[in-house]
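Here is a typical protein record:
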Amino acid sequence: MEDPHNLGALLRSANGAGVDGAVIPERRAAGITGTVVKASAGASEHVPLARVVNIARTLEDLKERNVWTVGLDERATQSYYELDYNMNCALVLGAEGKGLHDLVRRKCDLLVSIPMMGSVTSLNVSVAGGIVMYEILRQRRARQAQSKPGKRASTRGKPE
């Protein structure tokens, strides 16, 4: 992400969704500036942040630590809500207007997209990231609720 407003908004959503941390490249990406801090409403102070030289190599390092890498890409055939996120995973987002770099896209274990119904083909990166982060949170909370003693899973099906 190159736009500090997008980075700030994404960090705010990340904090709200309870992420463990964020990774951004050292070059060609927004750094933590006053604009980022302001756009994050202070959340940038609470989300651990790592700046790395090479995102593709970082994805390989995460895989070695049993973290699945899930790329958000408008060309993916699987919708973000079809994936079971009850695993250690890292959400990989691309740059504004460009999406995921081809090498980074190939390094991802899984690719998901957000279905678009209108004439615009993609969402703002911070909005898209927020949508998927909250789906991950929703699924994990549902799994926790099902596993608690005395709790029953809902018998209702999905709405049609």
Observations:
- Residues 51 and 102 are 20 Å apart (CA to CA).
- The first strand starts at residue 22 and ends at 25.
